[in-house]
Amino acid sequence: MAVFTIKAVGRTVLRRSRFPSRPQNTTKRHANTSRGKPEDDPSAGASIPVPNTVATLPIWQRLGPLSTALQAYGRSQRKRPYTTQFCSSLVIYFLGDLSAQNINGDEYDPTRTLRALLISAGSSIPSYKWFIFLGNNFNYPSRGLSLATKVTVNQACFTPIFNTYFFGMQSFLSGDSLPEVWDRIKRTVPTSMINSCKLWPAVTTFSFTYIDAQYRSIFAGVIAIGWQTYLSYLNRQAEIAQDLGNGKIHMTQSIP
């Protein structure tokens, strides 16, 4: 038995002497020295490039002082939405009326500006609530279907009601009778609705696609300055035509 044990130990020693075991990190060391620069090997601690996952800021948030103003507006919109909308609407209507009076070539009439501000005061909050409703509804799995539905509903429901209110109040606040108010609406609303289809579907689509919710009102407001200029201009032309029809302006009088 002792002889057998001595032989077994001898064979084990002989095998280890013929095939010495190598450390496990010998291969890695060899690989590192064979490649030359250890930083080329990811296992040596070199940084691995990864794709940039940081979201790019929208362009309107990278415009220096303008971005600061927009961010201040967004904070005000979140804290005091009704007050912000009311004041924004007054500014939009004021600028639109000034522009329209300049286009018509008339002398500045503060009474017209006051009428515009009163109309703005009555429409600012309902208009804001409408677009909140529009943003929270008609959201389908298909983004294209959602946008198409929002644009269609806005043009079919909001536009005729708002335009009727705008032109009707312009006539009413001017002291016209109810038949004259109705005549003003008939002269202006169909034309304004047709022309609104050339502008507001594209504005609505762009707004709901690319603009954050808190900035949609100010984006639409910038566009609305031009639109209010057009509405005021159209109202003035209808007012002149109505006065001509009623004999309030003689044909020999110059009309801007």
From TrEMBL:
Its main location: membrane. Residues 16-49 are annotated as: Disordered. The keyword Transmembrane applies. It is found in: Membrane. It comes from the Eukaryota. It is a multi-pass membrane protein. InterPro entries: Mpv17_PMP22. Keywords: Membrane, Transmembrane, Transmembrane helix. Pfam families: Mpv17_PMP22. GO terms for cellular component: membrane; mitochondrion. Belongs to the peroxisomal membrane protein PXMP2/4 family. This is Mpv17 protein. It comes from Amylocarpus encephaloides.
